Amino acid sequence: MDARPRVSASAVSDAAGQEAEGRPDAPGAARRFGVDAAGGTVTARQIGSDALAVTVLDHGATLNRVRLREDADHPGRGAGAGWTDVALGFADMAGYLAHPDSYLGGLIGRYANRITGAAFDLDGRRHRLDANDGAHSLHGGNTGLDRRTWAVTEHTPATLTLELASLDGDGGFPGRLDVRARYAVEGATLELTVEARTDAPTVVGLTSHLYLNLAGGGSIDEHVLRVPAERVLTVDATGIPGEIADVTAVGLDLRDGEVLGRARRHPVPQVAAVGGLDHPYLPEGTGLREVADLSLPSAGRGVRVLADQPSLQVYTGNVLATGVPGHGGQLYRPGDGVALEPQQCPDAPNRADLPSAVLRPGEVRRSRFRWEFRTTTD
Prior knowledge:
Elements: E1 6-7, E2 12-13, E3 30-35, E4 41-48, E5 52-57, E6 62-70, E7 82-85, H1 93-98, E8 107-108, E9 114-115, E10 119-122, E11 125-128, E12 137-138, E13 151-155, E14 159-166, E15 177-186, E16 189-198, E17 202-203, E18 207-208, E19 211-212, E20 224-226, E21 231-235, E22 241-246, E23 258-259, H2 260-263, H3 269-274, E24 278-282, E25 289-296, E26 301-307, E27 311-315, E28 338-343, E29 358-359, E30 365-375
Parallel strand pairs: 1-13, 2-3
Antiparallel strand pairs: 3-4, 4-5, 5-6, 6-7, 8-18, 9-12, 10-11, 13-14, 14-15, 15-16, 16-30, 17-29, 19-28, 20-23, 20-25, 21-22, 21-24, 24-27, 25-26, 26-30, 27-28
GO molecular function: aldose 1-epimerase activity; carbohydrate binding
Pathway: Carbohydrate metabolism; hexose metabolism
Protein name: Aldose 1-epimerase
């Protein structure tokens, strides 16, 4: 990939730390955010529109803030027009370094979710991966893409492109993987397009670990989630996928919309196994299509999620807990955010019954993710 920078937005501000809580920096702005584990500078860059303001870190290609602009016509909002941050994130790099396993907003790879036994076979060869989740590999292991600082190659007021090269053997994965991620804002829509190329046969599964809270803080219990999927992969207590099941048979039906406070406490074995929802749904259809819709009727906010991935991991933050303040000084607790992660199916490298995640030289793996935000006045 062409790694020559084409950064056309404003120069990086020397003022370290966070932008103002209530007012985002102008689209195209950039400011120093801190330093990564290697001592390198981390920068926060702003893209946006009149309706949506998004802050992206070059560390992990991380979605740090997603702010909606709205007026106060809805009874569930405060007085006056303003911005509401609906993404979970930390106020500075200290939080991300102290809690890397929270994965707040990171671009996850080289393989999102779990690979059983931290190993897989490809073309007759056994590949052993980082075992960073008990005996299993999770989210690319100890050197996942979310833990690296990416190169910014283009920044405009509405778009940001970042690139990263993951070398052969990173996390145990074979082949060099060149990844390009492009964030774009148009109106109230945020889109992420990711391209991956390799120089040797490998497996790839990328996603965004964006945590959403449409209230701007507190519990997600009043949120309503709809997922158009008739099938789901069951999981065991360690999150390893099992059989493909009918959602009604295992008590995980979200097709008509379900209040998350009820769904994550539903008295069925699958919910009890992982303390909430942490399940790979298999949405109907292929290509870019709706995979989820999340709303908070009491505040008049919602988001429609579209993707071209075969599965959607629904995670209700069952073990989410941080001792470092996030946005607004919040100490995040279990159930304070929901991650809707379109992705390759977990453990697909070890299962012939799931869509293949293999990427070979000469191929390009393109993945698209879209969040269509909305606000209402009733």
